[in-house]
C-alpha cells in the first residue's frame, strides 16, 4: 500500500506528465520527403551509397523516360552541356534522361567519341594540366586516389575515347550531389551515383557519345540560364526574376555583414 507522501508526489506528477504528452502530440513535425526508389540508399559491393536528398531532385533532375526526336541511333549517349542533361537513346523514339554536372566554360568535352573503357569504383589521378592549373586543389592527389566513397569519380566511370585514344574525359558518378545541374568541374560529366550505376548497366563498350553544340541545344531544349545557385533551368521570365531577386537579397545580406569602416 502506498504511503501518503508517495501518493502526494504522484498526484503532482500526473498533470505534469499529461501536459508533456499533449505538448508532444501537438508539436509541429517536419515531414522528410523520401527520394524516389531509384535514388534510395544502396549497398554496392563493399560500399554504402547514401540516398539522394529529395530536394536535389526537383525541377526535372530525377531520371526519367521521355520522348526523343533527335537523329541519333538507339544506344547513343547524347550530352547537352548547356541544358545539363544526358540522354541514352532508346528504340521507338524514346530516351532515358539524366541530369548532369559539367565542366566550367572552356574545360568541357566537345564533339564525339565512344566509351572505350568502364570501371566500377574507379581509382582517380588528376591530369598534369589539372595539377598545373590548380595546384592548391590537385597537387596533394597527384599520386592517385583509390576507388571508394572519397573518390571524386564515384561509383562508376565511363571513359571517353576518340580515335582509339583516351581523351581523359569521363562520364562518372560523384561524391558531391549538390554539383549535379551545375558547371563546376574540371571538365568531366558527372551524375548522381545511382544514375551512374544505371547508365553503366545499360551500355556496352563502344557505345557512341555525342555532345550537342549550342545551336543544337537551343533548337531542341530551348534557352537555359543558371539560377542563383548555379543550376541550369529553362530561361523564362519567372526564372530570371527569381534569380535576380535571390542574388539581390544575397548582395544586401553581404553588404549588411560588412564591418563598418573607421
Main attributes?
262 residues; alpha+beta; nine-stranded mixed sheet; 25% strand; disordered N terminus
Could you please describe the fold and organization of this structure?
The chain has about 260 residues and is an alpha+beta fold. The chain is built from 6 helices and 15 strands. The strands form 4 sheets. Strands 3-6-5-4-13-8-9-10-12 form a 9-stranded mixed beta sheet, covered by helices on one side. Strand 4 and strand 5 (about 85-90) form a beta hairpin. The radius of gyration is 25 Å and the shape is globular. The model is unreliable at about 1-30 (pLDDT under 50).
Give a brief description.
With 262 residues, this protein is of the alpha+beta class. The protein is 27% helix and 25% strand.
Please state how the strands of the largest beta sheet are arranged side by side.
3-6-5-4-13-8-9-10-12
- Low-pLDDT ranges: 1-30
Count of individual beta strands? 15
- Approximately how much beta-strand content do the residues carry? 25-35%
The count of helical stretches stands at 6
Major sheet: size, sense and barrel closure? 9 strands, mixed
The termini sit apart by 76 Å
Q: Give Rg in angstroms.
A: 25 Å
Coarse morphology? globular
What's the mean pLDDT score?
A: 85
How does the helix and strand content classify structurally?
A: alpha+beta
Which bin fits the share of residues in helices? Answer: 25-40%
What is the H-and-E element order? HEEEEEEEEHHEEEEHEHEEH
Furnish the topology, listing elements before pairings.
Elements: H1 4-26, E1 42-44, E2 47-49, E3 64-67, E4 77-80, E5 85-89, E6 94-99, E7 102-103, E8 112-120, H2 128-133, H3 135-138, E9 156-162, E10 165-172, E11 183-185, E12 189-190, H4 193-202, E13 208-211, H5 214-220, E14 224-226, E15 232-234, H6 237-257
Parallel strand pairs: 4-13, 7-11, 10-12
Antiparallel strand pairs: 1-2, 3-6, 4-5, 5-6, 8-9, 8-13, 9-10, 14-15
